[in-house]
Amino acid sequence: MREDVLRLTAVSKSLPGGRRLFEGLDLVLAAGEQVAIRGESGVGKSTLLNIVAGLDAADSGEIMVAGRNLAGLDETERTVIRRDKIGFVFQAFHILPYLDLAQNVAFPLILQKIPRSKAIARAGELLDAVGLGERRRSYPKELSGGELQRVAIARALVHEPALILADEPTGNLDPDTAEQIMALLGRSVKQRGAAMLLVTHSPTAAATADRQLLLTPHGLVPAHG
Ligand SMILES: Nc1ncnc2c1ncn2[C@@H]1O[C@H](COP(=O)(O)OP(=O)(O)OP(=O)(O)O)[C@@H](O)[C@H]1O
């Protein structure tokens, strides 16, 4: 039996001032599964993604990513999990301005010490998949917000991560491009037996997931439409 890609057990988080964001949160993502999380602005959706990524700490509870318990790891080991197992599509794109698009997309592979020519070739394939293959030698400042979003998606998929964390991945995209991007993310998840945790306010993007959940201060509850 395959292990779950992500398992959260009784995760709680309060803000520095003491306000409790969420309490006793449980969630399991099986291989091949896409889960959308919705919820009011400020309820803690982005914070939850940061906790799963090991970029923020929960107050209590257990977070298992690809069979590894984040709490049992030191910062170096957490960095390796982030680098090898997770693909990020976050609101701040973190696209590096001094690298061209192919170099940006290849970056996760370069960090894994994949030979440069192979990494750049693979980045080109991903840029083709998001419709930016012709722009591979362009620099980020020459791109629109929606194009940068697509570069971030190509980079999130290039190293075939077990877990994709996506925060409003279609936020800057027109409806047609958004649909194509969600289909690309979905295919990538299903074909490889990866999993995706998607945070979005968009009912259309959320509807592409296998399950929709609502984040509330009392935990995650099933959401509909
Ligand atoms: N470092 C911090 N210190 C204090 N408060 C913080 C910090 N980071 C986030 N917050 C607060 O935590 C709450 C949850 O923020 P978060 O970004 O997780 O919400 P969200 O559900 O993703 O919201 P949105 O839908 O608007 O993006 C907000 O009230 C925010 O102001």
Automatic annotation (TrEMBL):
<keyword id="KW-0067">ATP-binding</keyword>
<keyword id="KW-0813">Transport</keyword>
<dbReference type="InterPro" id="IPR017871">
    <property type="entry name" value="ABC_transporter-like_CS"/>
</dbReference>
<dbReference type="InterPro" id="IPR003593">
    <property type="entry name" value="AAA+_ATPase"/>
</dbReference>
<dbReference type="GO" id="GO:0005524">
    <property type="term" value="F:ATP binding"/>
</dbReference>
<dbReference type="GO" id="GO:0022857">
    <property type="term" value="F:transmembrane transporter activity"/>
</dbReference>
<feature type="domain" description="ABC transporter">
    <location>
        <begin position="6"/>
        <end position="225"/>
    </location>
</feature>
<protein>
    <submittedName>
        <fullName>ABC transporter ATP-binding protein</fullName>
    </submittedName>
</protein>
<dbReference type="GO" id="GO:0016887">
    <property type="term" value="F:ATP hydrolysis activity"/>
</dbReference>
<dbReference type="GO" id="GO:0005886">
    <property type="term" value="C:plasma membrane"/>
</dbReference>
<dbReference type="InterPro" id="IPR027417">
    <property type="entry name" value="P-loop_NTPase"/>
</dbReference>
<keyword id="KW-0547">Nucleotide-binding</keyword>
<dbReference type="InterPro" id="IPR003439">
    <property type="entry name" value="ABC_transporter-like_ATP-bd"/>
</dbReference>
<dbReference type="InterPro" id="IPR017911">
    <property type="entry name" value="MacB-like_ATP-bd"/>
</dbReference>
<dbReference type="InterPro" id="IPR015854">
    <property type="entry name" value="ABC_transpr_LolD-like"/>
</dbReference>
<dbReference type="Pfam" id="PF00005">
    <property type="entry name" value="ABC_tran"/>
</dbReference>
